[in-house]
Amino acid sequence: MNVNESAENYLETILILSKSHPVVRSVDIAEELGFKKSSVSVAMKNLRMKEHITVTKEGFIYLTESGKAIADMIYERHELLTDWLVRLGVDPKIAAEDACRMEHVISKESFEAIKRHVK
Question: What is the domain extent for residue 32?
Answer without folding.
Answer: 5-64
